[in-house]
Amino acid sequence: MIKLHNMTKIQEYKIEPIYASGDYGRQAIILRNKILSDAKLLPEDSRTDENKWEWRNFYQNVYIYWYLILQDMFEGAFVASMADNTANENAGWFTNPRKHRIHLGNADDYKTIDEYNAAVYNKYFDSFFNFTVSSELVNKYFIEAKTTYKEGKYYCTACALFPIIEHYSRLLSAYSSEDGNFTQRTALNAILERIPKWPSVPSISIDYFTNEYRKIKDFMLENYYKHSKQEDPEPQFICRHRLLHGIITRDVTASDCLKLFLIIRSFAYLERLFVAAEKLIKYNSFTLQTEDRLLFGDEEYEKIIAELLQ
């Protein structure tokens, strides 16, 4: 049995009671600052038991940090479930996470949902789409797309946004060339299956988060990635095939582009969930390995691992 060590410079963070929405996020900020400070106290030599405890507590705090981040994300999904967004989603406006939904005056002052939402996102464009795509090259294209949008070049913007969406499809589906030909349908369905689940996160939050993504996926496949021939009537929503093959017969609008920007924002949010899940598993593993070394000793621990790997 390992006894907790109370004489270390780095102490394990204790999660405070959660009373209100946002408490997970607020504690994550506090813990992040603690981790950055504690990193300066970490001993270079981790061979002694005293130093192992420093590293163990550091790893555990990083694990707790990502746990708080995940809880905050799922809490946001649960809070969002209290409001109905059906009318917006039917019109292609997917705002995920919805807890950051921005309102602009009285919606009755606008004739259509598209007109109202375009006014909202145009006013707050820089703040709402102020995120970075993880790929440096793709992020450069994303910045260019935002620039052309502000210049009113909506056709150019839409042509730039679809490849960014497909970048996320490949990334989040963990697509490999060994998997055969890449298709959006296969990739988007694979992403749905990869959304992680944890016993420590209420299933209602995970289910809601998953259903939100499923609605986005279904809308994309039914509209943006629907096959369309030249002689077919122009669909209500922009179609990638018609756009990139030069058979679109209407102007691309600001609303068309903003809806695509929101899809990318949703994917960026989903990527953050995947990263948080990966970090959670990684630092939990580091913590457990360090505890095992304290329990068995380095030499015995190495023997146990070697036997398991035989």
Quick rundown:
The protein has 310 residues and is an all-alpha fold. The chain has helices at 23-38, 49-80, 86-90, 113-123, 125-128, 136-150, 154-172, 184-194, 203-224, 240-244, 254-296, 298-309. It has twelve helices and no strands.
Keywords for this structure?
single chain, 310 residues, mainly alpha, 2 domains, elongated
Description:
- The chain has 310 residues and is mainly α.
- The chain has two domains: 23-73 and 279-309; 84-277, no CATH class.
- Helices cover 63% and strands 0% of the residues.
- It contains twelve helices and no strands.
- The protein is elongated.
- It starts with 22 loop residues before the first helix and ends with a helix.
Q: Write down the Rg.
A: 24 Å
Count of spatially separate domains: 2
Round the mean pLDDT to the nearest integer and report it.
Answer: 86
Helix and strand run: HHHHHHHHHHHH
How widely separated are the two ends? 27 Å
Biggest beta-sheet profile: none
Shape: elongated
Question: Which percent bin holds the helix content?
Answer: 55-70%
Put simply, the count of helices is 12
The structure class reads: mainly alpha
Low confidence ranges: none
User: How many β-strand runs?
Assistant: 0
Percent strand: under 5%
What is the fold's blueprint, element by element?
Layout: H1 23-38, H2 49-80, H3 86-90, H4 113-123, H5 125-128, H6 136-150, H7 154-172, H8 184-194, H9 203-224, H10 240-244, H11 254-296, H12 298-309
Helix pairs in contact: 1-2, 2-9, 2-11, 6-7, 7-8, 7-11, 8-9, 11-12
